[in-house]
């Protein structure tokens, strides 16, 4: 049997540090999207405290991409954790609808208020998120302030775990989310200054599903996929390796048009995380 490498020892040490941090927090509810970060927090809670002392809560609204809820529930069920799915109403918040650079603050405020109230009603005094060390260093994360104002716990950040660390520990624990692409809320696809509406969120969701299906039919795979609503145009962002091939597919433009974007011009480009943050009007 091969001995653990230095890198493997480092990952194991980070996993141990996370479990220690979670034990200090005690029983908690997780603001659980089903993404890599919150899934790791949930799994750490199960390992450190037991499944009965952890609660998974997924906010369900127009901003949640189709398919995400089912995947989140499947993992929570596999971990043996109770999973609640309250409705949230981000669109009731004017700051969210206005879609300024601080939109995420209003989104997180709504989500965390609902999750915290539900957690308390089920006997959980603490709520944790999947905020990691990279998130804390990102200047475009106004939602973090909403968590700080509400005393939300952030075990990944407290341990100094970066996104790379989160994936490494998740892989160590054989979590299916270890290599899951980031799936931020659908509002992040809409250029700042363009009001967020239920219609805009729904057509982005439909467009991304249709583009994925079109790529699959053509035998193309893209780990990252975004349909950006830029107001007068639409930008499809994919893994750079397939951009040229995808741009030659007539079905891609048709898919976006049928999803609700009509005759809006469509551009296919390489994916860049947080791109709209750098394109503020």
Automatic annotation (TrEMBL):
Which keywords are on file for this protein? Transferase
Key word Transferase present: yes
SUPFAM superfamilies found in the cross-reference section: Adenine nucleotide alpha hydrolases-like
Give start-end ranges for the coiled-coil region(s): none
Cite the GO molecular-function annotations of the record. sulfurtransferase activity
Against InterPro entries, the record matches this protein to:
LarE (IPR005232), Ni-pincer_cofactor_biosynth (IPR052188), Rossmann-like_a/b/a_fold (IPR014729)
Instruction: Quote the catalytic residue positions.
Output: 185
Which PANTHER family does UniProt cross-reference here? EXSB FAMILY PROTEIN, NAD_GMP SYNTHASE DOMAIN-CONTAINING PROTEIN
By its UniProt entry, which NCBIfam families does this protein fall under? ATP-dependent sacrificial sulfur transferase LarE (TIGR00268)
Question: What is the designated name of this protein?
Answer: ATP-dependent sacrificial sulfur transferase LarE
Species source reads: Streptacidiphilus pinicola
User: What's the source species' lineage?
Assistant: Bacteria, Bacillati, Actinomycetota, Actinomycetes, Kitasatosporales
């Amino acid at each position: 049997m091969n001995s653990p490498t230095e890198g493997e020892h480092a990952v194991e040490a980070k996993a141990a540090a996370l479990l220690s941090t979670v034990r200090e927090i005690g029983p908690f509810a997780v603001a659980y999207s089903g993404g890599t970060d919150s899934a790791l927090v949930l799994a750490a809670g199960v390992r450190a405290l037991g499944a009965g002392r952890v609660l998974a809560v997924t906010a369900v609204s127009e901003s949640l991409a189709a398919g995400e809820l089912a995947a989140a529930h499947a993992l929570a069920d596999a971990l043996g954790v109770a999973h609640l799915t309250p409705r949230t109403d981000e669109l009731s918040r004017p700051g969210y609808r206005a879609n300024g650079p601080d939109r995420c603050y209003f989104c997180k405020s709504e989500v965390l208020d609902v999750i915290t109230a539900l957690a308390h009603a089920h006997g959980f005094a603490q709520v944790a998120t999947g905020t990691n060390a990279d998130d804390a260093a990102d200047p475009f994360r106004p939602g973090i302030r909403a968590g700080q104002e509400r005393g939300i716990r952030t075990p990944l950040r407290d341990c100094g775990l970066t996104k790379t660390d989160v994936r490494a520990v998740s892989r160590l624990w054989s979590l299916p989310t270890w290599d899951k692409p980031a799936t931020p809320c659908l509002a992040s696809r809409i250029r700042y200054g363009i009001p967020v509406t239920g219609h805009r969120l729904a057509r982005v969701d439909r467009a991304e599903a249709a583009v994925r299906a079109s790529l699959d039919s053509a035998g193309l795979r893209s780990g990252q996929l975004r349909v950006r609503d830029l107001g007068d145009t639409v930008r499809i962002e994919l893994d750079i390796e397939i951009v040229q091939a995808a741009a030659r597919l007539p079905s891609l433009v048709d898919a976006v048009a049928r999803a609700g974007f009509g005759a809006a011009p469509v551009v296919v480009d390489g994916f860049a995380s947080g791109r709209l943050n750098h394109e503020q009007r």
